[in-house]
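lol ok so funny story. i was supposed to be doing the assay writeup but got distracted and ended up predicting the structure for this chain instead. priorities right. anyway since i did it might as well share w the group, maybe its usefull for someone
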Amino acid sequence: MSLNLDDKKAVVAEVSAQVANAQTIVVAEYAGIEVGHLTVLRAKARESGVYLRVLKNTLARRAVADTPFAGLADQMTGPLIYSISADPVAAAKVLADFAKTNDKLVLKAGSYAGKVLDKAAVQALASIPSREELLAKLLGVMQAPVSGFAGLLAALAKKREEEAAA
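and the output, tada:
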């Protein structure tokens, strides 16, 4: 069923709002994917804070016009699913991880920091650890000296107790 003009304007406004807050957009061809698999993909996207939607390409082109993602408009052909996220890695990671288990989802292109990315660049972006993973690693590195120092003090105190007892 086709959309009337008001519905189209509403879709463009909704997508434009998502694009305004986005750092990354990734597009993939989804032809042949079963509905159940798309439902799983959408659930993963929601968990990761990714806006995932199948859109008419003309409406998507209108939504990205006059934004840093305008260069991606040339790649918007065929049946595409759009992944948009404020996290620079999340949109690419959700689609790339799903594409590993489902060969019918084919990564096509993406855009990050005003640059259009090809399939290989999108996969490279997806391989970068997420912000949460990087923060956890940083916290571990920052805690290591403190916990090592505390262990050293505990061992020294134990040694002095043993010497005092002897």
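The mean pLDDT is 87. The chain has six helices and five strands.
back to the writeup now i swear
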